[in-house]
Amino acid sequence: MVYLPPPSTHLLQPLDVGVFAPLKKEYERLMSESFKWALKNTRKSQFVENYEKARKVLTSTLISGAWKK
Q: I need a labelling partner for 35 at 20 to 30 A (CA). Which of 4, 28, 51, 62 fits?
C-alpha cells in the first residue's frame, strides 16, 4: 500500500480517465459477451481470462498519452 498525501491525488487523475477507463470498458465488453453466450456455464476462471484479454488495451502509447492531456 502506498500513502499519498491528500493534495497530490489530483496528479494521478490522468490515470483514472486515460488508462483505467478504457480498461474498464474493454473488460465490461468481454464479460458481457461471456454472460451472453454462457450464462449458466460461466466459470470463475473466465473473470481472470477476460481481465488478461482486456489488459491488451494498456499500450505504452495509451499510458503515456494519458499524461499528455
A: 62
